[in-house]
Amino acid sequence: MNDKAKELSIGISMPVLNEFDSIKQILTEIATELKSENYTICIIDDGSNDGTLNIIEELMSQNKRIKLIKRVKKRYGCQRGAASRRALEWLIINTRHTVFVEMDADGSQPPTELINGAKQVFMLDYDIAIASRFISDSKVIGRPLVRRFVSRFYSLLARLLFNSRIHDYSHCYRFYTREAAKFLLNFKPRYTSPIYLLEILVIWIANNYRVIEIPTLYIERNDKQSKVKFVDLIKGFFGILDIAFKYHRKFYSR
Question: How many other C-beta atoms are found inside a 10 Å radius of the C-beta of residue 172?
């Protein structure tokens, strides 16, 4: 299913909201890691008011590969799903990149893994590569026990409902081909919250896209509160059940 061009190039989707403490470092590290590659970073800001935008605009003047789209959240709770979708649409329309990846802006996902992850889908016979926290050789640092339990429970339930061979259904650090990215744009996702990550993965699974999980180092941010609220967890639980119903009724199949 891969729509591969002759050269590897990477489009990065990065939702942000008040990332003053980390945004400069993560963008600098990405630029260093990809200095020999063709890439674009599409940043979707959901209304930062802590100086994040000032840092981004300063870095944009130095690095033309950084693009910024400003949004205003219209719903309560984390809206990273809607932000991710908007970035993907922009990247598909405005670039010819062959691999796409979503990253957090808080430094939890190492840019040193970008090239390896991109090559999994560009050079090997896979459509999606997930940087999985729940497989052998992966390492999670600093994540509170409660959040580990929630993530594990979430992915265990998803494994029972969808595909047991996939271990991590909630990590956004994923790499996918241009063809897989364009396929998603044929669907209007039901969810704009973090459950969007499950919904798009299920869309791929339902249409027989090839998925591989690769080891990752996940470093939990310790200095800021999670943008995922309790209401998002409740929505997530019922969202899994809703997506499972649609999946087994072939709603996502094309």
Answer: 20
Domain CATH number, residue 52? 3.90.550.10
Contact 185, 89 (CB under 8 A): yes
* Residue owning tokens 């339902």: 206
Let me know if residue 108 belongs to a domain.
yes
Cα–Cα distance measured from residue 232 to residue 205, given in angstroms and rounded to the nearest whole number: 24
pTM to 2 decimals? 0.90
**What's the pLDDT at 5?**
44
What 8-state DSSP symbol labels residue 69?
E
Provide the domain count of the chain.
1
Quick check: 138 pLDDT over 70?
yes
Mean pLDDT of the chain: 90
Query: Residue 7 has which token pair?
Result: 């050269």
Evaluate whether residue 39 is within a structural domain: yes
What contacts 71, CB < 8 A, 6 or more positions away?
A: 44, 45, 46, 47, 82, 83, 86
Specify the higher pLDDT residue, 225 or 248.
Answer: 248
- CB 21 within 8 Å of CB 108: no
- How far is 221 from 229, CA to CA, in rounded Å? 16
d(CA 7, CA 231) in angstroms, rounded, equals 43
Distance between CA 98 and CA 39 in Å, rounded?
A: 10
Helix (H, G, I), strand (E, B) or coil at 186: coil
3-state secondary structure of 97: coil
Contact indicator for 107, 224 with CB cutoff of 8 Å: no
Checking if the pLDDT of 34 tops 90, the result is yes
The dihedral through the CA atoms of 201, 233, 250, 93 has a sign that is negative
